[in-house]
Design goal:
The protein is of the alpha+beta class and 136 residues long. The protein contains 3 helices and 4 strands; from the N terminus they run ααββββα.
Length: 136
Amino acid sequence: MTNIAEFRNASGQIDWEALHRAEIEAGECCNLCRGVIFPPRGRSSLCNLCRLIREEEGKVDHRNRLRCPKCRHDWAVEAEDNGELYSEGSHEVCCPVCDHEFEVVTAVSYSWESPGLVVREGDDNAQGQHGPKPVG
Ligand SMILES: [Zn+2]
Ligand SMILES: [Zn+2]
């Protein structure tokens, strides 16, 4: 595995660019989208999603790339390009290479973070009063 400590410079800062390059070389991160590859492949590789977007002839889902159905060009979705692409539903996009217009469908997923458990005061006292039951 890539050791993050090897990428600290003299002032203790991490050289992220060099770290990412090493992770890509080691096949730990996809050389196209930088998604994590597990298990690592030991050489520069594509993650499963990127392999699909390059090879699959049917519909493909990718968490951050689009593919033109006409010329097969694929590119990363950038929030600043078209914020509308981040809302649920179908959107028209235009291929930056061949100008072909096509429709993509955005699926938004959500998760909710709940706070950690509250330690209830008084529980210890209640237990102390009753005490453990004698065995036998
Ligand atoms: Zn990838
Ligand atoms: Zn195209």
